[in-house]
Design a protein that fits this description.
Number of strands: 2
Order of helices and strands: HEHEHH
Number of helices: 4
Structural class: mainly alpha
Distance between the termini: 37 Å
Strand order of the largest sheet: 1-2
Shape: flat
Helix content: 55-70%
Strand content: 5-15%
């Protein structure tokens, strides 16, 4: 498993493409109130920093990645489902 944020050089190389893709998707007219990020560590920090720079969304909500839950916290799966649902319901208020 290798993530874009595991290497500074890779992060630097892919960031312009990521920004371009995000902008293209936002140009569809998506709701910009909240975005959910899978990953509460480095992925969240990266997306949150990009969002602060580009002002895409009003709020960035980190959620544990489903793979992490299933691999390390499967016995707590229902708790995470509840957490996801609460995050989704809170954002729509």
């Amino acid at each position: 498993n290798y993530n874009y944020y595991d290497s500074a050089a890779l992060t630097k190389a892919v960031t312009p493409f990521m920004v371009q893709c995000m902008q293209q998707q936002l140009d569809f007219g998506l709701n910009r109130e909240v975005v959910y990020v899978f990953g509460t560590g480095k992925n969240f920090a990266f997306v949150d920093a990009l969002n602060a720079k580009h002002k895409w969304f009003k709020k960035v909500v980190p959620l544990e990645h489903p793979r992490y839950i299933m691999q390390y916290k499967a016995r707590l799966k229902q708790d995470y489902i509840t957490k996801y649902l609460e995050a989704f319901n809170t954002a729509s208020l």
